Amino acid sequence: MKPLQGFAWLLALQLAGEILARALQLPFPGPVVGMVLLIPALNWLAVRAPVIEVARFLLGHLSLLFVPVGVGVITHLDVLRDYGLRLALVIVLSTWIGLAVTALVLRAAMRHAPTQEEVDDA
C-alpha cells in the first residue's frame, strides 16, 4: 500500500507544480516545480516513507523505462542518419561545457568556503 501512496504523493506534487507553473507563468516545467516542492515535503514522515518505497520500486525496474526511448530511436533512424554526427557533437560539447562550468563553480565555492580553523573558532 505504501508504494501506491508514494506514487500518489509524487503525482500530487507534480500536479501542484504544473498548476503553479501555469498559474504563475513560470519559465520552468511543472514537473521541475513539483520536484522543488518535493524537497521540503520529504521532511514530513508521512510523505518520506511512502516515497522511499516507490523510489525503491522504480529504481528496481529502471531498465524498463529505457524501452520507450529505444523504440523512439529505432523509429527515427532516418533523423539519426541525417543529423547523427551533429547530434553527437552537440551532446559531447554540451557535456564538456557542463562539466567545465561545474568545475569552475566548485572552485569558486571552495575558495569562499571557511577553513577548518575558522570553523573551530566559531
Describe the protein:
The structure is a single chain. By secondary structure, this protein is mostly helical. It has six helices and no strands. The protein is extended, with a radius of gyration of 21 Å. The model has no long low-confidence stretch (mean pLDDT 90).
Gist?
Helix content is 83%, strand content 0%.
**Would you count the extended β strands for me?**
0
**What does the overall shape look like?**
extended
Q: Kindly state the percentage of residues in helix.
A: over 70%
Q: Span between N and C termini? A: 47 Å
Radius of gyration, in Å, reads 21 Å
Largest sheet: none
> Helix/strand-derived class?
mainly alpha
Number of helices: 6
What pattern of helices and strands is seen along the backbone? Answer: HHHHHH
* Mean model confidence by pLDDT: 90
Kindly estimate the percentage of residues that lie in beta strands according to DSSP.
Answer: under 5%
Uncertain runs: none
Keywords:
122 residues, 6 helices
Mind sketching the topology for me?
Blueprint: H1 2-23, H2 30-41, H3 45-60, H4 67-75, H5 77-112, H6 116-121
Helix pairs in contact: 1-2, 1-3
